[in-house]
Design goal:
The chain contains five helices and five strands. By secondary structure, the chain is α+β, with helices and mostly antiparallel strands. It folds into two domains: 7-66, no CATH class; 83-164, Orthogonal Bundle (Arc Repressor Mutant, subunit A).
Length: 165
């Protein structure tokens, strides 16, 4: 985090509102929020200049994504996490649109084949949904495993990508 005050906004998506938190131009968190949160606040706050481009780019990228198209998310990311968590999150970004990988595959990709549970724990702590696609990680037997946004959203995201892939 920089010395700036983080900026948080709520973005409407077809699967419910998402809270996006920026620290300067970098996205630090993107998460589905309770549906009781309104997607359009009554008086939207003024978007600070260093954040404005990131918010605009994120809205456009999410619109493209939710229309069923692969997107190269070019927004700078700055998730807070341990070096191991950031290594796992980086590996998650390498899972292609429309594809899935198991926790064991991710563990092998990062050169730690015995760290399957640790990979699962790091994936569960991913603070940036969709752009760091932890929804694409499945169990070794092909089953859907937990997702912070809920299994229904995970199913919907995978179905959306399967149609567009």
């Amino acid at each position: 985090m920089t010395d700036s005050t983080p900026f948080r906004t709520i973005l409407a998506t077809p699967l419910g509102p998402m809270a996006a938190t920026f620290d300067g131009p970098a996205l630090v968190e993107l998460a589905f929020v309770d549906t009781s949160v309104t997607a359009s606040p009554q008086a939207p706050p003024q978007v600070p200049e260093p954040v404005a481009g990131g918010v605009t780019a994120l809205r456009a990228a999410l619109d493209t994504y939710f229309s069923g198209h692969a997107v190269d998310f070019l927004i700078p990311l700055a998730p807070a996490g341990t070096p191991f968590q950031r290594e796992v999150w980086s590996a998650l970004r390498d899972i292609p649109f429309g594809a899935t990988a198991s926790y064991a595959e991710i563990a092998r990709r990062i050169g730690r084949p015995r760290a399957v549970r640790a990979v699962g724990a790091a994936s569960a702590r991913n603070p940036i949904a969709i752009l760091v696609p932890c929804h694409r990680v499945i169990g070794a037997d092909g089953s859907l495993t937990g997702y912070a946004g809920g299994l229904e959203r995970k199913r919907a995201l995978l179905a959306l990508e399967a149609q567009g892939a």
